[in-house]
Amino acid sequence: MATPPFRADHVGSLLRPAALHDARAKAKAGAIPPSALREVEDRAIRAAVAKQESIGLNVVTDGEYRRDFWHLDFLRQLGGVTQVTGMQFAAEDVPPMPAVIGQVRCAGPIMTDHFRYLASLAKTTPKLTVPAPAMLHIRGGRRAISREHYPDLGPFWNDVSNAYRAAIGHIAAAGCTYLQLDDVSFSYLCDARIRDGLRAGGDDPATLPRAYALAINQALANRPAGMTVAMHTCRGNFRSTWLASGGYEDAVVEAMFSTDVDAYFMEWDSERAGGFEPLRLLPKTKRVVLGLVTTKSGTLESKDVIARRIDEAAKYVPLDRLCLSPQCGFASTHHGNKLTEEEQWRKLERVVEVAREVWGV
């Protein structure tokens, strides 16, 4: 396949090498300057890009090596957004939560320097990943959004969409032709426990899928014709754990599939993700990347099992509109999941192997 998503694709984040962990810890302690950390990041990204290309991937990312968290490093660069520390877990910090304390706006380019460096290295297609607009709402809900600045959420969503439209414009101007919106909101809304939590905070979860979809569509209103946009849906990915369970529900999926993206990376690595039946609702102009290889453990999936599951999905979507990837990133946060780098690369190799056998690419 000449344009993304590719038959063998991946979500984006990679386990941080030991040298990068060490350099980041030293930088946080003030033991090395930011420039020294940047040099270590650059070296690690060069090696990661070379490795991705060597195993046959037609898409490369920077592994999110310059980030601590998949979403916060982007969100906190928006005007009006800060982050608050959450609960402690096993003496390790869990991802803090974004909080809106002022008018949401985009004051300048965000992560375009990350993309330009990646593109300067890539012989194949470079992909940039950013959090979806709903990430400013789903975790904290109404309680995490200033009532002083936003007594009503209508203006909030307008400002979020405008800020994202500006940020995506900067990303497009940097030359990005493959952008991925990382999202947990649609999958989270399929979990009754999370819906109950949102109600307790003053939100109506029944209205949220359409609100989130509208924000995405408005954010993408001015994207250039040559930019492919995919959405990755996730049920949580922190140190091999997850937050939400439950299959994709029709009402939520219908709203998600109404977004103006070209493809969806969807999780199906375990029974908690349900079956492939919701794929019957996929519009005929869109593609799905099946997340059938788990990033939560080092156990390598059988090629036959993966191929059989692709066949199951093909009962609902023609094979030529399907692709394959791991179900999530390998390190959505700097902590990483509980597997080794060798196991990580072997899983990506397995994705390439199966894609070649199923689609002949």
What does this protein structure show overall?
- β7, α5 and β8 form a beta-alpha-beta unit.
- About 2% of the residues have low confidence.
- The chain is 36% helix and 16% strand.
- The chain has 361 residues and is α/β, with parallel strands linked by helices.
- It has a single domain, classed as TIM Barrel (Alpha-Beta Barrel), CATH 3.20.20.210.
Computed structural class: alpha/beta
Which series of helices and strands comes N to C? HHEHEEEEHEEHEHHHEHEEHEH
Report the top-level CATH class. Answer: Alpha Beta
**Number of continuous helical runs:** 11
Q: At CATH's second level, what is the architecture?
A: Alpha-Beta Barrel
Which strands sit side by side, in order, in the main sheet?
A: 7-8-9-10-11-12
- Cα-atom Rg, whole angstroms? 19 Å
Count of strand segments? 12
Into how many domains do the coordinates divide?
Answer: 1
Give average pLDDT, whole number: 91
And the CATH topology? TIM Barrel
- Poorly predicted parts: 87-92
Strand count, sense and barrel status of the largest sheet are: 6 strands, parallel
* Secondary structure: helix percent: 25-40%
Which overall shape is indicated by the principal axes computed on the Cα atoms?
globular
Tell me the β content.
Answer: 15-25%
Overview features:
single chain; 361 residues; alpha/beta; TIM Barrel; 6-stranded parallel sheet; two-stranded parallel sheet; 11 helices; 16% strand
